[in-house]
Design goal:
By secondary structure, the chain is α+β, with helices and mostly antiparallel strands. It folds into 3 domains: about 300 residues, Beta-galactosidase, Chain A, domain 5; about 220 residues, TIM Barrel, CATH 3.20.20; about 80 residues, Immunoglobulin-like (Sandwich), CATH 2.60.40.1180. The chain contains 13 helices and 38 strands. The two termini are about 35 Å apart. It binds (2R,3S,4R,5S)-2-(hydroxymethyl)piperidine-3,4,5-triol. (2R,3S,4R,5S)-2-(hydroxymethyl)piperidine-3,4,5-triol (DGJ) binds next to loops.
Length: about 725
């Protein structure tokens, strides 16, 4: 619900458990008052806080400075000398920016984007309208409420209504001012094969920024950030989170002033973004999802999970059973052979696996990673009767089929590059770096997008397909476009991301019943932008279950289990002394959507039986993993435990892993109905209260990789 108190000029945005309050002061400025728990005492009026040396707004008087005012948006070089959210370069060359609040609009639903991902739906929207009286630019600032998930989304739209062109130099999507509370920052950081580890550190004076300049959201920093107070725990205390619905360069930061007040901002990366705004043109920033929890980090994560499942992931797939795949990559790499794949399909059917995925290597001259990318034609040496015939064969066996693509990329050794070297991102007269022996297509150019989309559509038309894995295997560098004039080169990075979204839109529309899985050399593009098109994303190329525990724990802090693709493999990328067995690997894969990635035709009978049992268990449990509330449990280093509880608390799945030879006896669960009794798989019946207070027996048998899972149902 959004309300406006006309007398006090206070806006209140309410979700189920939170309230966001701001006030228009001195007729021109939107001051931030409060974001937190719903209480009666909220919405005290704004208090002036100017101090010596803070530039003050001359016409208002010495008491009022933008430097000391918590604002909804801050503007470059206009008296607020903290880091600011908005910077426009005026036609006269200066960058001084100042927007005054003018008006507002409250309306049902939201304004949808047609060129970028966004949160679908929304209960109600508040639009604040600001004007820069010098340039004539109008700034529309949007807040959309999603009451059920306790989330609010924010973005900005610039409209040049002046009589000269402008250049947007910085355009944060969201700013939030927080009081002095000893903040701890939580981010998801890593690198290739070690993505999204959960990292916490106390906020310190100055600016702490995470970012990507890599052209994708990256393996290094995820476009996600949370802040908690010193005393916040999993199930108690205050916390805020911000998630960017964007898949390219971003920045997200907290600035802490000497008096420990925090200003949080999230948006496009100012180092690699600028946008020319001619008279009459509009520019819209991507969206940020924002949430607050008064009862700890579990609730914070659940809000984000609910939001992503409810409003980001395409509704058609959100609650539908995901395929249990056998993926060819770690088994055969580029050695795709129709006959070998047929034997995989037969074995998969026996094991209960339902989808065969042909990974990289099925097209053009793609026999290794140095060639063939861009040539989206079936390799007829590998599929002598074509892909459609192979697909029919797989379907006749009762399996479904998936295939791998990497549409944004091209190898210099390809037919496409020979024909169109100008279709590659490049800077005139400079050599282009390679990444995995490949270059990047210029997606600022519609001709390139249409060619790739049409070719893939043609090649796959008539092939029965249920799944497509969409990869992206390099970081961008030397980012220029031969299709754009010099003054637009500063727009290429963002235009490229818009281009990839256009491709995603066209291909997902062309294959409406196909489930797309995102991927980027493992998990280099795991973000809410991709989830708008692809209901799940490959979390990492590291399938060693011990490293994977940390990757999935971090990922699930911000993204739901249903978005995390997790395969059981027999890789030993962690160089472990003892290889964890398939049961431990399966237990880890329960933190995501199950698949297999190994040579299933060479398993021992015993391992085959294990896999059959796993798939059967997963068949019973997947509904909970897709839709339940996930609670992380308090454990020690090297352990991971969570319980997934149905929304109506009628069932739960408890999952536990240990890598430290611990022989835990009991672990307390959370999130259950204390008054109810649950019958567990081990045949015992416990009350929810007992499971909370005394805990559940954790029967860890295998060392050093202990695992345990238990399903319980309310009786
Ligand atoms: C990187 C992906 O993460 C892998 O799973 C695999 O698809 C390879 N690319 C194929 O080149």
């Amino acid at each position: 619900m959004i309300a406006f108190d006309k007398e006090k000029r206070i806006f209140k945005i309410e979700t189920r458990n939170t309230v966001y309050v701001m006030q228009i002061v001195h007729d021109k400025f939107a001051a931030h008052l409060y974001y937190g728990k719903k209480t009666d005492g909220v919405a005290a009026d704004y208090v002036e806080r100017a101090v010596d040396f803070a530039p003050y707004v001359a016409e208002v008087g010495i008491g009022f400075s933008l430097e000391t005012t918590p604002t909804e948006l801050s503007f470059f070089d206009s008296g607020d000398l903290r880091d600011t959210a908005v910077k426009l370069q005026n036609a006269n060359g200066d960058c001084t920016t100042l927007f005054y609040y003018k008006d507002y609009r409250i309306f049902k639903g939201r304004v949808e984007f047609d060129d970028m991902p966004y949160s679908r739906g929304g209960d109600e929207t508040l639009e604040l309208i600001y004007v820069d009286e010098v340039s004539g630019c109008v700034l529309h600032s949007y807040y959309t409420v999603f009451e059920q998930s306790d989330t609010i989304t924010r973005y900005q739209r610039y409209e040049n209504k002046g009589n000269a062109p402008l250049c947007i130099r910085q355009a944060a999507s969201c700013q939030l001012e927080l009081d002095d509370r000893e903040w701890t920052m939580i981010t998801l950081c890593g690198k290739y094969a070690k993505e999204r580890n959960l990292v916490e550190y106390p906020a310190h004076l100055g600016i702490q920024r995470i970012y990507s300049k890599r052209g994708h959201s990256s393996h290094h920093f995820n476009p996600f950030m949370a802040l908690k107070t010193k005393d916040t725990r999993e199930n108690s205390g205050d916390a805020y989170a911000f998630e960017f619905v964007y898949s390219g360069d971003f920045e997200s930061q907290t600035e802490l002033t000497f008096d420990k007040k925090a200003r949080v901002m999230m948006g496009l990366n100012r180092d690699t973004f600028a946008w020319n705004l001619a008279q009459g043109e509009m520019f819209t920033t991507p969206e940020v999802i924002m949430t607050y929890s008064a009862c700890g980090l579990n609730k914070l994560s659940q809000n984000l999970h609910d939001h992503i499942r409810g409003y980001i992931i395409p509704s058609k797939f959100v609650n539908s059973k995901r395929p249990v795949v056998i993926n060819t990559w770690e088994a055969v790499y580029f050695n795709i052979d129709e006959n070998v794949l047929s034997s995989y399909a037969e074995k998969a059917k026996e094991l209960g696996i339902d989808t065969l995925v042909i990974d990289d290597g099925w097209f053009g001259s793609r026999n290794n990673d140095s060639q063939g990318l861009g040539d989206w034609f079936v390799n007829r040496e590998k599929f002598q009767n074509g892909l459609a015939a192979f697909s029919d064969k797989v379907h006749d066996l009762g399996l479904r089929l998936g295939i791998w693509i990497e549409p944004e990329m091209i190898n210099p050794k390809s037919e496409l590059y020979k024909a169109h070297p100008e279709w590659v991102l490049q800077c005139k007269n400079r050599p282009s770096s390679l990444g995995r022996k490949q270059l990047v297509l210029d997606l600022t150019n519609d001709e390139v997008i249409n060619y790739i989309v049409d070719t893939i559509k043609r090649t796959l038309s008539g092939v029965k397909l249920e799944y497509i894995k969409w990869d992206f295997n390099r970081t961008l560098s030397e980012v220029g476009s031969l299709a754009l004039p010099p003054e637009k080169q500063c727009e290429v990075k963002h235009r490229f991301v818009l281009g990839t979204y256009k491709m995603h839109k066209l291909l997902t529309q062309a294959f409406p019943n196909v489930l797309f899985e995102g991927c980027s050399g493992g998990g280099g593009r795991f973000d809410a932008g991709i989830l708008f098109y692809c209901p799940q994303i490959w979390a990492s190329d590291n399938t060693d279950p011990v490293t994977r525990m940390e990757i999935q724990k971090g990922t699930a802090f911000a993204y739901p289990i249903s978005s995390i693709s997790a395969h059981v493999s027999n890789s030993r990328s962690n160089k472990l002394e003892v290889s964890p067995d398939y049961e431990f690997r399966f237990n880890v894969a329960l933190g995501g959507m199950l698949g297999y990635e190994m040579n299933i035709t060479r398993l021992s009978k015993e391992d085959e039986e294990k896999i059959k049992r796993q798939v059967a268990k997963y068949d019973k449990w997947y509904g909970l993993l897709l839709t339940g509330d996930q609670y992380r449990l308090k454990v020690d280093g090297g352990e991971y435990a969570f319980v997934c509880v149905a929304k109506d608390k009628s069932e739960f799945l408890f999952v536990y892993q240990d890598t430290q030879n611990r022989q835990r006896r009991k672990l307390s669960l959370v999130g259950l109905d204390e008054k109810a009794a649950y019958v567990c798989e081990n045949g015992n019946t416990y009350s929810g209260k007992t499971l909370h207070e005394d805990g559940i027996d954790v029967a860890v048998s295998k060392l050093p990789y202990g695992y345990f899972s238990c399903y319980g149902k309310r009786i």
